[in-house]
Specification:
Mean pLDDT: 78
Pfam families: BBP7
Low-confidence stretches: 1-33, 42-59, 64-68, 72-81, 86-161
CATH class of the largest domain: Mainly Beta
CATH topology of the largest domain: Lipocalin
Radius of gyration: 37 Å
Strand order of the largest sheet: 3-8-9-13-14-15-16-18-19-21
Number of domains: 2
CATH superfamily of the largest domain: OMPT-like
Number of helices: 3
Largest sheet: 10 strands, antiparallel, barrel
InterPro entries: BBP7
Helix content: under 10%
CATH architecture of the largest domain: Beta Barrel
Order of helices and strands: HHHEEEEEEEEEEEEEEEEEEEEE
Oligomer: single chain
Number of strands: 21
């Protein structure tokens, strides 16, 4: 028995140096006494060289317990997938030998290349399923279940063609992915100045709706709006440019629905006192324009605001690193295979944010009717170079994707201001004049400028494999955008009453309101639900 144990130890040491890495499992052989003599013959041929080989550590206690309680899972099946070509290095395995688990001192191994009737192998299922770590068959590419795909580890000679695939438009691409996600995002709101005020009954006309006066209440404005959730969708389509999945290209487009906020209140003459506040540059004090006041005027005042965000981009990805391994799962001690890959990204990015803010008064007085409109519209368009990295880790049926990108470029800021007053006097035709209340000839127009901007993006997505090709996903995205223009920031409440239609002729006083760019930072974040299909 001592001689047999020494022969087994020597043979195991020789196999340890000649077996390929990343194969784990357990093989159990119970054979007749003739097997011991056959093993002795093989071991004696290698005893001289094996004596100088390093010895592997003894199995730990938990490994012995695992072997003692091991039960076979399923019968071995014939595998047609070709094995990687053997090399002459110390990690090669002689033809016909199979290692189904970590080889330690005292292990019984099998060197014949076939299985006896009734013997079983414990190995993983397709795509690194929950059955173990020795995956037999399946896709071995780095973005699926490992880096051991024949011919793709180093893109050398092998059964897999590892060249480029220029046929992208004239024939169907062989490898790619497409995903669609429903977006539930939240954005940075729009700031507004006080736009509509009210005063209690009995307020004198001079103090009606004037900010800072006792009893004046701000009905709309003086806060942040459009902070509710944004609904939208995101589509991503990608193609691998080579068989080894080391080069790829991906396009992306997302859009949110138009989010809106509105206010409207009607008060006839003698009803609630309503007004639109402003700062009178002639008197240097707060003032207001009446919307409803007893025996003077009555009508409706309304405010509408909306916003929409959309973006697109295209990026090339390059495989930087990948690997695979085997480890215990969180909820049990069953080993499970995992893979991971890191890609570098570089490409182009476009974003567009549009805001609209409009105010309208429909007034009726003893002198006639008035329809007064102010409109502020902004559009921020970003164009820049996008670069970053993405990381994917696959474990069993689960995948985890992490994304970090930074876009550097310019934002085209466009502000459009317009206003009008339609007056219909009793017994006369309607006349239209340029200018409302906060939009006058002094700030009406379209303004453009370019500003340097950065757009970092962070993302995480958890996926579960429903079928061989389909994943269900849930994710989180955060996007920050510097230097954008919002409609509410472009409103100036400094007004010269001499500009109100009909304008005083000759005009006297400062030309207010005046336009001045006011930009700010913007962010949006939220969760997404969707699916990804890979082929």
């Amino acid at each position: 028995m001592l001689l047999v144990r020494r022969l087994k130890t020597a043979d195991v040491a020789w196999l340890r140096l000649h077996s390929p890495p990343q194969h784990f499992g357990v093989t159990v052989q119970i054979k007749q006494l003739t097997w011991i003599f056959g093993l002795a013959i093989v071991a004696s041929a290698t005893l001289a060289t094996a004596a100088d080989q390093p010895r592997r550590r003894a199995p730990q206690k938990d490994e012995r317990v695992a072997r003692a309680t091991w039960q076979p899972v399923r019968a071995a099946q014939h595998v047609d997938a070709p094995l990687p070509p053997a090399t002459n290095g110390p990690e090669s395995l002689p033809a016909g030998e199979i290692v189904l688990g970590p080889v330690n001192d005292g292990d019984v191994i099998y060197q014949d290349g076939g299985l006896y009737a009734g013997e079983e192998i414990y190995h993983d299922g397709l795509y690194g399923g929950p059955l173990g770590c020795d995956a037999i068959g399946g896709d071995g590419s780095c973005d699926a279940i490992g880096c051991g795909r024949p011919g793709c580890s180093d893109c050398g000679p092998g059964p897999v063609a590892c060249g480029w695939r220029p046929c992208v438009t004239l024939c169907a691409p062989r490898d790619g992915w497409v995903s669609f996600e429903y977006l539930l995002w939240f954005q940075d709101g729009m700031d507004l100045p006080p736009l509509v005020t009210s005063s209690p009954d009995g307020t004198v006309r001079a103090d009606a709706g004037v900010l800072g006066t006792t009893g004046v209440d701000v009905l709309y404005g003086d806060d942040e709006i459009l902070t509710e959730s944004l609904n939208g969708g995101r589509l991503r389509v990608g193609l691998w440019l080579d068989a080894c999945h080391s080069w790829g290209v991906e396009g992306e487009y997302f859009s949110t629905s138009t989010e809106s906020d509105s206010f409207s209140q009607t008060s006839p003459q003698g009803g609630t006192i309503l007004a639109r506040p402003f700062f009178n540059v002639l008197t240097g004090a707060e003032d207001s324009e009446l919307v409803s006041f007893p025996d003077v005027v009555g009508g409706t005042v309304s405010v509408n605001a909306d916003t929409q965000l959309q973006g697109a981009g295209v990026s090339f990805r390059r495989l930087l690193a990948c690997g695979d391994g085997c480890g215990d799962t969180i909820f049990c001690n069953l080993p499970q295979q995992y893979t991971h890959r890191l890609d570098g990204l570089i490409g182009y990015r476009w974003l567009e944010l549009q805001d609209t803010l409009s105010m309208n008064e429909a007034l009726v007085s003893t002198d006639g009717t008035f329809n007064i409109t102010d409109r502020f519209r902004t559009r921020s368009q970003f164009n820049g170079i996008d670069f970053g990295g993405s990381y994917r880790r696959t474990r069993g049926w689960w995948t985890l994707d992490l994304l970090a990108k930074l876009a550097i470029g310019t934002t085209r800021e466009t502000v459009t201001i317009s206003g009008s007053t339609i007056t219909t006097e009793t017994g006369a035709a309607a006349t239209t004049a340029e200018g409302g209340l906060l939009a006058q000839r002094t700030n009406i127009g379209t303004y453009n400028r370019d500003r340097f901007a950065v757009v970092p993006e962070l993302g995480a997505k958890l996926g579960y494999q429903l079928t061989e090709n389909l994943h269900a996903t849930v994710g989180y995205t955060f996007i920050y955008w510097s230097n954008v223009v919002r409609a509410g920031d472009q409103v100036s409440t400094d007004v010269n009453p001499n500009l109100l239609p009909p304008e005083v002729d000759p005009f006297v006083g400062a030309e207010r309101p005046a336009f001045a760019y006011r930009d700010s930072d913007y962010w949006v974040h939220g969760i997404s639900f969707g699916g990804e299909y890979r082929w």
